[in-house]
Amino acid sequence: MSFETAFERIVGHAHAKAVLTAALATDRVAHAYLFHGEAHIGKFLTAMAFAKMGLCPHPKIGRSSGRPTLASCGQCPSCLAVDSGSHPDLQIVRPDGVQIKIRQIRDLQNSIVFKPMIGSRKWFLIDEADAMNPEAANGFLKTLEEPPDHSVLILVSARPQALLPTILSRCQAVRFSPPPLQALSPWLQKQRGLGPEEARLLATLSMGRIGIAAEGDPAELKIERDRILGALSKERLEDPADLFSQSDDLAATPEQLDRSLDTIEIWLRDVLIVPHDPDASLLINQDIPEQIMAWGRAVSTDAVLETLTLIHLLKRAAPRNLNHALVLETVLLKLRDAVIGESTTGSKTGEAGRVRK
Ligand SMILES: [Zn+2]
């Protein structure tokens, strides 16, 4: 895989890119960064581009719109080694299964003490850093407390609140937000050679998640969205057996759960907006305004806001090892109460519920 040579080629994240460019241009790269923000919006790709630039012995320095720009050359042995995953001064740590384990952190520690082989720094990218188990996190903290001068550690996380506060406090935090759809659509036209309509639909369906937009098939994404939204119909929510099988199905994997929660969250956002948006220009699901309008008519604004708050809490605070189906079930039960117009304070959950192992 060929990683980007310049930040300009990565859509969005202007602030993050400016901070990182300045760090390299002034040779003030921090020892530890935390790249945080929602999943699939380009944090890891930016980290790879940053490391590639930092490692390249012939970076191109320029200016664009009055700001300094920096690019790796993309052709030297160092750049090619980054692309092929064989650079001796770049190590990537990812969860082994669902966790980052102490063994992986020990490997990092054994490597970080040695001087870089080619470049001037050694780069370590810890993807999904919040997946470190407690033993790994404590081990990692020791490295963060006294990192060797030549090392750069980049923690990438969509759930930074799951990291130890002592880890967070030692990293320079760089926040990433999904790029605006208006920016993503032209980028997709250029990057993927799509027509304007197709690019807009793909930008919409990927919800600003550049990682998905860059690779996703618009037709498949649409089918997936419609499958998730199908679970929100009144008939299906009212059928307890169906509701529980949907919860299992739409939360089969952690990624699937994330997609389902995002899709529901955006749907609810659209439900709030649609009455005030006659030409549907502000909707994210721009292709289905009537469906959004019809669903929204049956539900109170308060219930929608309460569900959004619940989803927000679950996304941020639910521990990684929580039963995924249970998370989605909680949301669907809340929505069921919303569409049948009942308060959630009663024992509805218990009546319809079943015992989960
Ligand atoms: Zn190079």
What does this structure look like?
With 357 residues, this protein is of the alpha/beta class. It folds into three domains: 7-175, P-loop containing nucleotide triphosphate hydrolases (Rossmann fold); 179-216; 218-352, no CATH class. Helices cover 51% and strands 10% of the residues. The chain has helices at 14-25, 43-55, 77-84, 102-112, 134-145, 165-168, 181-192, 196-205, 210-213, 218-230, 234-238, 240-250, 254-273, 289-297, 301-317, 324-339, 348-352; strands spanning 32-36, 60-64, 67-71, 90-93, 122-126, 151-157, 172-175. A five-stranded parallel beta sheet has the order 4-5-6-1-7, sandwiched between helices. Strands 2-3 form a two-stranded antiparallel sheet. α1 runs parallel beside α2, α4 packs parallel to α5 (134-145) and α8 crosses α10 (218-230). The longest helix is centred in the C-terminal third of the chain and has 20 residues, at 254-273. The radius of gyration is 23 Å and the shape is globular. The model is unreliable at 343-357 (pLDDT under 50). Bound molecules: zinc ion. Zinc ion is lined by residues 56, 58, 72-73, 76, 78-79.
